Amino acid sequence: MLSTDHAMQLVQSLIWLLAGVGVFIVGMNFMSEALEKSAGEGMKKLLGKISNNRFSGVGIGAGVTAIIQSSSATSVMVIGLVNAGVMTLMQATPIIMGANIGTTITGVLVALKNDYFNMAMYFFAFAGVMMGFFKKEKIKITGLLCSGLGLIFVGLNIMSSEQAFGNPLVETMFQGIFTVIDNPFLLIIVGMVFTALIQSSSASTGVVITMVGTGILPLYLALFIVLGANIGTCVTALLASVGANANSKRVALIHFTFNVIGSVIFTAIVLIFNEPMIQLLISIFPGEDPMALQMRVSLFHVIFNVTTTCVLLPFVSSLVKYSCIVIKDTPKEEEKLALKYIDERLLSMPSVALMQVKKEMDYMFSLAKENILLSFEAMEKEEVKQEENIRINEKIINFTNSNLTGFLIKLSSLVEESDERIIGSYFHVLNDLERIGDHAENFYEIAAEMVGKKISFSPIAKEEIAAMRKKVLEMLEVSLDVFDHLNKTRLSSLTGLENEIDLLKKNLTTSHFSRLAEGKCNMAASPYYSSAVAGLERVADHLINVGYSIVSPVGDQMKN
Fold first, then answer.
1. Confidence band (pLDDT; 50, 70, 90) for 182?
2. In CATH, what is the architecture of 344-548?
3. CATH 1.20.58.220 segments of the chain
4. 3-state secondary structure of 113
5. Quick one: average pLDDT of 112-131?
6. What is residue 39's predicted lDDT score, i.e. its pLDDT?
């Protein structure tokens, strides 16, 4: 039985231990946030290279995870992209495999800990806090990175201090625990549960590495806990897939299956080749100093993830088929409105989310363009056969406008200062695209009413409206090119076309009233003619706003 003093010491040590774990996780989060912000463009380029090549997929997964220092975050991001229909299961699977390799970097950093390294990290933490007082965004991000890196090692040092793992009472307690729990399968479960609770395999592996470095945990037992930690990290992805589509659930299942298969293979290897495996690790990092002990665990973690990826990479298609068998497609219900490229899970990756917002707006632009073309065709041919298509497109445009606006509001508080201007312009573009869709619907209604009432424009009126429509379509193509490809060189062409349309409206209105006065035009067609001309000129106004949004948050400064 422990005395009261010993019991109090043990409780205090456990509190120190939990504090160390907490500081470590806070440091991980700081560093992850800073790296994601500073490497946002790099991540965009990596994700832009997504293809069906398995090796590039592994490289992308490893690269992104190395940047953001979190395989869980990468998995959640991939689930979001799959749920948004941007990525296929065949593309997502190698990325998940690569993410497991990328996350081993944290373990290597933790294992490098020594007195000189610790002093440098303490200085990093202090310098990072000081940098946080600067106004410049880049300095703040660098400060966040330094603070995070420093806090990781502050947390590790708290864990390995005399008040925590360094306390003889704690050492005796854990040695007693691992004397009882020395079964490999129980140790795997311990690793799974601990990692699932803190939702970070990097943190749990860091704790294991520290325990091995202080001599509390034998290397042989530590290997099984590390294997369990790799299964436990899948919990984050499994939770992220709740409420997502079938493919997203399959990504989470593949991630879980991949780590389970790898853990089963390595459990068998460690059990069968126990001595050779331990001797191999010792021969690479000889000695009994803490760094050598820690590097052995870190090396095993790297070997496990790299080997598992190499073994299972040829079976990507089999893993995909297996996931499709386990998780069936739900019976096709009535098609529900949903954003095509956006998923709420992407908010954890603001730079990626902003990239997907642009794709969603390009899609919205394409629907507005389609409705313009359909309505112009109805006016020209005096046929109304496309009402259903226009109605569906307009419904999607309105839905996208409303939901994307809500998404942008959430995203605006997460992006860097440099991206705030882009989001500001997107709010205006959304409104302009929605209004273009409304005008397209109005043009179709003009055509439908005229067909229903058997009213037609005079031949000269048809020619005039056709000429103005042609200019608007030309302007639409230029505006789309400018917005889609950020093509500033065509802004002058856009302005020239708008000036021509403004002049056309003035001239067409004058000639129309002259024909009315001379009795050459059907009075019943007059309101429709005026509405069509006015609507075309307003569409031009919205198109120039969309084009000029790439240089000004509120569109065409000359008009606003």
1. confident
2. Up-down Bundle (1.20)
3. 344-548
4. coil
5. 75
6. 54
